[in-house]
Amino acid sequence: MSAGFRFIAGRPVPMPSRAITSSTTTATMSSTPPETTTVAPNRYAFPSSPAANPKSVVSGGSGDSHYRFTVLTDRLIRYEWSEDGGFEDRVSTFALFRNFDRPNYMVVDNKDGLEIVTEHFRLIYDKKKFSADGLSVKVGNDTWKYDGKSYGDLGGTARTLDGAWGRIDLEPGVLSRKSYAVLDDSNSMLFGEDGWIGVRKPGRIDGYVFAYNGDHKAAIKDFYRLSGRQPILPRWTLGNWWSRYHEYSAGEYLELMDHFTKEEIPLNVAVIDMDWHKVNIPAKYGSGWTGYSWNRDLFPDPTGFMKELRKRGLKVTLNDHPADGIRAFEDQYKEVAKYLDHDTSNEEPIRFDCTDKKFMDAYFDVLKANLEKQGVDFWWIDWQQGNRSKIPGVDPLWVLNHYHYLTSQRNLKTIEKPITFSRYAGAGSHRYPIGFSGDQQITWAGLEFQPEFTATASNIGYGWWSHDIGGHWSGWRSNQLAVRWVQLGCFSPILRLHSSKCLWNSKEPWSFEPEASKIIKEFLVLRHRLIPYLYTMNIRASYESEPLVQPMYWNHKEQEAYTVPNQYYFGPNLIVAPVTSPNSNVTLMGSVRAWLPKGRYVSMFHPHISYDGDRYIRLHSDLSKVPFLAKEGTIIPIDSTPKLTNGATRPSRITILLVVGADAHFELVEEPEKEDSTTHPPLSSFVRTPITWKQKTGILTIGPEWNGSGKWREWSVKLIGHTNTDVQALVPRFKVAKTDGCTIINLGNVHRWEPDGFEIPLGEDLQLDVVDINKHVFDRLHRAEMWYDAKDGVWDTIAKSKDPLRDRIDRLYRMDVHADLKNALMEIWAADGRSPGSAKGHEFWLESRAVVDEERLETWDDYVLV
């Protein structure tokens, strides 16, 4: 079979047999490490096509006012103005690929003004210096008037969460509730033809109007076309990372890694914070934040230490605060000085200077290359010292992120793809994953903001955030808070446990109380089981411009989609609504207000409960679970290896989580069999296994595997939320079990090269089980901590009364019982319109929030009728 399929849920969508290509296709880069300390090949070379198609350019002007407009698409236009008649065709940190095909547009040009009209916008310009009165773009029912600012009221992201107690202001993205968004690029850093940094001429104006009128996905796709696609992450990045700001010794760190193995908690990345290097240095040298010399008291054999980490299946990254340069106490001071012809006689420091090309060569090809030879796989760039340099407009963070990423290619034999771990520097930063969001304080308010912060980052194309899961510092200890944060981490782009240097604050799962410890472990294991799904989403993100995490309004035009900022898609068809407040003292569950689009959804953690969509609903989960919903017609492949280990090898056992009720398709994508050092290999080179479910016939097809080795692999199928059909009668030669609202079929070893794929009949037109209202109402009422006598009245009202439904609902609403309990029971009563006696369509919801007083560390309840 030569054609592929797009990575979507639903029916298979044929693709051409050739690789997907676009203007942002990257070139092959060498993976050979430099043998000497000369400049690494391709250090300054990266794919770009910055000059626009001449047929798309409208320009003119005279005297001291000159303009240029570039119609990139019929919904995206670049606007430029200069006093001297010069315009910018170099690469900016944002715009790498301006050479688009000419779209359809019309120009009306006369002495009084200029108009540019496409199917989607109308630009009007008075040919003077840009102003609110002189330059406007009408899109739909909205009109943008030039003001020199970026605009995108749906938010983007921010450079850091350092010190954030809760919500912070976000920089704008390129999506908006209005019909347009604007990205002002006038002050961004540039790169010359030789790949080295450049600066803009002051006073010139340069920006982009995104005229997408609510078509958010189209806007993001063109954003990536212009700025460059998201890179492919290595598989190992998608598992668990361990990080802690702590003075570990080599022995202590290795013992800790072995403890994780003993607890059967898999890890992929060992992050060593700044105490790997000398910190307590003589006062004459300044602070100890910057350092490149191993602390031999803690790490007497750095090479041996990192070799031991690699033996344990771990990648190694070291923290780097580069602001203070290389000082005389450093082990490599003289070697770097020799490279730079720096006088060492007075122990003058070698100042960090990101604008000096020779210094940056020494920084990478002497200082860091020598450490990489010892075993450092990649770097954690923890730049915290501002955005200024010797040259106005050159941001050190941009310089570090960009050139670290290009330089990381020399370690491809161990890290597989280039990678940077650093902070967000502005639009275009998505090309240098992975992001480090900073030192957030440990508060419920901080957790409450993080899902929204993660989702809106996709509005500026930034799809791979890594947060300090559990929070970094300050705040207070809470088992519940730690559990809820790890649950969010499990359904985040990257899961990295981290904490500050504090005797009381660490994130080892076994350091929490037994219940919390068990739950944290379960979610860390689940994260690794999700890697087959996550890696496919990684490829989807890069080749199809679909970030893993997406706000609800990316996929739905309904107004309700904009009212649930903490709810998001986690790949196609999967919705996460994290619990970000303490559990109720009555129901012993956390809750969250959610909105479900049209369709029917099953709870992946409560598979015996499914929900009709097209409405708001309050979802409840005890501490061991989180609202994680899948729409009918969903397939999720997970690693079902009995005992997971460190690293992220391709699993030999896979379980297909199948949500019946509609046709489903998923294409499992894995790395090419042959090692490929290119940043974006042809899509046709990846190992790909289509998995298809036909709802009407009940046929599940696995394979055939394309481009693979043809080895056997053990498969199982888990029907989520379906137990009513006797599957055993249809598949008598396979082992079938039913457990906790699911049906599991063990298929055993299936050869990957079955000519037409492996087919198995599971039953025609299977449906999700109907919710048993009385059973689940009883369970929740039984667990509720309240007066026994009050339970009788609630139970009689829901389960026994023969009164009209509306009267019973009204009676429950007026009862003198806690609002949390009413909400928890109404979730069940109104969940499934197919259930006998369902309250769907008559539900009420009471807002009951556990509000945390961050000053007094106390909680209370606030009840408001919605």
UniProtKB/TrEMBL annotation:
GO terms for biological process: carbohydrate metabolic process; N-glycan processing. Its EC number is 3.2.1.20. Belongs to the glycosyl hydrolase 31 family. Residues 231-537 form the Glycoside hydrolase family 31 TIM barrel domain. The keyword Transferase does not apply. Keywords: Glycosidase, Hydrolase. Residues 21-38 have a biased composition (Low complexity). It is an enzyme of class 3 (hydrolase). CDD domains: GH31_u1. Residues 16-38 are annotated as: Disordered. The keyword Hydrolase applies. Pfam families: Glyco_hydro_31_2nd, Glyco_hydro_31_3rd. SUPFAM superfamilies: (Trans)glycosidases, Glycosyl hydrolase domain. GO terms for molecular function: alpha-1,4-glucosidase activity. It catalyses: Hydrolysis of terminal, non-reducing (1->4)-linked alpha-D-glucose residues with release of alpha-D-glucose. It comes from Podospora australis. Residues 546-636 form the Glycosyl hydrolase family 31 C-terminal domain. It comes from the Eukaryota. This is alpha-glucosidase.
